[in-house]
Structures are given as structure tokens and as C-alpha cells.
Amino acid sequence: MFKGLEFSGTTVALVLLGLALLTGLAIIFFKNRFNSQLGTLSEKYRDKVWKSPLAARTKYPDVDSFSFYRPFLLWGLLGATATTLFALNWTQREAKVFIPDDALVWEEEIEVEPPRTAEPPPPPPPPPPPVITEVPDEEVIEDEPEFVDQSVEEDEQVVAEPVKETPKAPPPPPPPPPPPPPPKDEIFKVVEQMPRFPGCENEPGDNKAKENCARQKLLEYIYKNVKYPPIARENGVEGTAVIQFTVGKRGEIEDIAILRDPGAGLGDAAKDVVDSMNKMSEKWTPGKQRGQSVKVQYTLPIKFKLQD
């Protein structure tokens, strides 16, 4: 009878919310109804003869909730049956990811522009030649020499004062050598074990099987999260954006660059989806060379194709 029924998560949530809302409204309705009758019940049953003195003290028949036992039971069975039916037929389907054919195939050569270096500043201009000014000859005034008697008497002894030798100051120490520059990590393009997208490390098989699994996971992530720019969609712009990035030693994505941009925002959209990999809970498996984790440069073509 109920074969083939399928309900989405939104439908199941709405049905459960509706049942809870109706149950709450029914409780509020009966509560207000009973409270409105409390003032008149004592006058209504004043002269009534009860079978037991305790019967009138516990609850009047008009507000006895057990008199609604059958409707409440039917409502509970209906709610439980509906909840079970919707829960058993709750169907959650995975959204199909559109991956273009040959998504990772890129045969065109990309001309990478070499990095621009700063041009050396021009040499300073030569200094101007010195200006030679003529100096007039000065008149030399010859003074008459004064003759001093330098005769020495025989009894006088001339004693030379001792020469005090001052110690030479030690030479200043040489300046310390500059600190060596930090070693720059080499970036490889091809290594023994290329970096892999996360999600396939626990898969059975050798490295080749894990690489194929990681490649498929990468395609699913790219084409599930990439956002087609509205301006490109409206103008029917398609093409392939080529992104180059580096997978670090700890699996982080860095140095993201656009090598080929078809225009209309496709290059920026491809760059954004690659940058979003840094926000994943799992990182890439870094590339390895001789058993050591190294930085590896990765080139990724992302094809933008409108579905018919």
C-alpha cells in the first residue's frame, strides 16, 4: 500500500512540527475550557446526591479528562502511526555532482611569465669639476733674525730627559659575521609520492589506487563547491581556468596563482574554491621525496561548462 513512498527531510520535519503544534493547541483548548467551567460547577452540582462523598471532592464529570480517554487515545495512535510512516520513508539522496568529461586533462602549454625583478637604479651623475680660483701672491715680510747665544760652559751638564713609551692600544675586534640566511624550502614539481586529496588514506590498495581515489574525491569537491559566476552564466561564458598552488609539508595550500583565466570571473571562482581547501577539517597528504615531506607545486585545470 505504501510502497514507493519517499519523503525528504524537510517534509518529515514539517509533519512532526505540525503534529506537535496540533497537540499543543488541543491541550491549551481543553485547559481553557475546563478553567472556564470551574465557577459554575459548584452551583450546578450543589443538590446532587453522590454515590460516594469523595466523588464530588475529586473531580466533576464536566471537567473529568478521563471522559475524553477515547479521543486522546485515537489521536495518540494517529500521531505515532504518522511519525513511523514518515520516518520509515524518509529518503535522503546525495546530490549528483556534474563533472565535465576529461576534467583533469589539460594538453595546452601554459607560458609562465618569469617573476619580474626590480631594475637597478641608474648610476649617479659624475660630480662637477672643481673650480680653480687664482690666489694672489702674498707678500712675505722678512723679519730680521735674532741671534741667541748658544755657547755652553764647560761646567754645565746637559742631561736628556727619559723618553716615556706609551703602550699601544690593542686593535678593535673585527665585526661579527652576518647571520646566515634561513634555508629556503625547495619546491618540487615531481616527487616519488605526489600529494593526495584527503579521504582516501584508509582505502585498501597500493599508492596507485589511493591516487585514483584522491583524484575522484578532488573532482567531486571542486565541482560541488565551485560557484559559477552569475555574469558568466548570463552571458554563456565557458572555459577552463588553470590554477597553480603549492601543497606544503603539512598539507596546507599556499601560493595560489591563476595561470589561465577565461574571463567573466571564472578565474577568481576557481581560485576561491582552491583556497577553500584550507578550511577543510582534513588536510592534503603532503608529497614525499626520499621519505621526507616536501613542498610540491600542483597545477589544476577547472572546466566551467553550462549544463543543458
Give a concise summary:
This protein has 308 residues and is of the alpha+beta class. Helices cover 31% and strands 11% of the residues.
Output the keywords.
single chain, 308 residues, alpha+beta, 6 helices, 11% strand, elongated
Question: Mind explaining what this structure looks like?
Answer:
There is one protein chain. Helices cover 31% and strands 11% of the residues. The protein has six helices and five strands; from the N terminus they run H-H-H-E-H-H-E-E-H-E-E. Strands 1, 2, 3, 4 and 5 form a five-stranded mixed β-sheet that branches. The longest helix has 36 residues, at 9-44.
Unreliable parts: 112-118
Number of helices: 6
Average pLDDT, rounded to a whole number, is 77
Residues in β-strands, percent: 5-15%
Radius of gyration: 48 Å
Which structural class do you get from the secondary structure elements?
alpha+beta
Distance between the termini: 37 Å
Largest sheet: 5 strands, mixed
Tell me the layout of helices and strands.
Layout lengths: L8 H36 L10 H4 L10 H20 L98 E2 L18 H19 L4 H5 L4 E9 L5 E8 L5 H10 L11 E3 L2 E13 L4
Parallel strand pairs: 1-5
Antiparallel strand pairs: 2-3, 2-5, 4-5
Helix pairs in contact: 1-3
